Amino acid sequence: MSARRNIVLFAALLPLPAVVITASGQACPASVTDIDGNTYPAVLIGDQCWMSENLKTAHYRDGSVIPNTTNLFSWALLNSGAWCNYDNDPVSDTIYGKLYNGHAVGDVRGLCPQGWHVPSDAEWQQLELTLGMPTGEVNTIGLRGVGQHVGWKLKATTHWPNPNLATNESGFTALPGGNRGSGGSFYDIGYYGSWWSSSDTAWYRALWSSSAGVDRNYYGKRAGFSVRCLKDNVVGFSEQKSPQFSLSPNPTAGIFTLQMQGPSIAQLVTLHDSTGRAVLTQRIHSSGPVTLDLSGHENGLYFVNVLYKDGSSATGQVVKQ
């Protein structure tokens, strides 16, 4: 779906010099198939490759069965992974996919296909910023991005009630699959959709038929929400001579500055840890220095990915110690 993009990596030697090395990131495939043989279309949104349908698998990545828990009282007592169909009706699975509790999302056996993962809260934020959400709203709780119609950009143009003002310009194709409360009851199919993040706080995203925004909130892990998978960020290496940006101080105790050095116009910066998970996302509004803060995160190597307005991207390394 997309030509391979160029990514810029700083040499990993300490102390890190402002010398850049290019890398080619994997292209977003047209589709991905889970362990049960379900195939999902994929869509490239900014620098992220997303499934554009809700997950339907009944097995973890290693083949282990995820229990289908239909009983209301049994669901309310769960401390391990489970799934269900909305109102225990298998017909809903064909359109909306399954609802999973938060324990299934966090299970080390993996809910998504190989090479994919449940997005973190920061990776959801990266998606939202790509679609125009203001930086000042992205970390808040509740509805955000209303004025920018971020929710409409995510919603499918079908299955939501009229008047449906969704544009689905992102290709995410969000559907109102409802949810299952922590007490085991089902709510709001046709009017509401909710999706887990992988973050320990159990952050989730929700869309309402009546709103143009995106709800960011957290809930107990016994709730049942839909799941979307995000492709892992895999890179390889080749050399480039001219630097794109500098990072200082590097190593850092937490706070450091990104300074653009080339003619390209940047719009978004995302920090990934050594496993490829996004831990911080921030929109860039000018060519001036950008202050980034890793305070509160573990010491180690982090990748600083910059997305430019022309669709290309560059990545440097910073060490927190």
How would you characterize this protein structure?
By secondary structure, the chain is mostly beta strands. The chain has two domains: 6-25 and 245-320, Immunoglobulin-like (Sandwich), CATH 2.60.40.3080; 32-231, no CATH class. Helices cover 9% and strands 32% of the residues. It is built from five helices and 24 strands. It has helices at residues 72-76, 91-96, 102-105, 121-130, 150-154, and strands at 6-10, 20-24, 31-33, 39-45, 48-51, 83-84, 99-101, 116-117, 142-144, 179-180, 186-187, 192-196, 203-208, 214-218, 224-225, 230-231, 238-239, 245-248, 255-260, 266-272, 278-283, 290-293, 300-308, 313-320. The longest helix is centred in the middle third of the chain and has 10 residues, at 121-130.
Question: What secondary-structure arrangement, pairings included, does this model have?
Answer:
Blueprint: E1 6-10, E2 20-24, E3 31-33, E4 39-45, E5 48-51, H1 72-76, E6 83-84, H2 91-96, E7 99-101, H3 102-105, E8 116-117, H4 121-130, E9 142-144, H5 150-154, E10 179-180, E11 186-187, E12 192-196, E13 203-208, E14 214-218, E15 224-225, E16 230-231, E17 238-239, E18 245-248, E19 255-260, E20 266-272, E21 278-283, E22 290-293, E23 300-308, E24 313-320
Antiparallel strand pairs: 1-2, 2-17, 3-4, 4-5, 6-7, 7-15, 8-16, 9-14, 10-11, 12-13, 13-14, 18-19, 19-22, 20-21, 20-23, 23-24
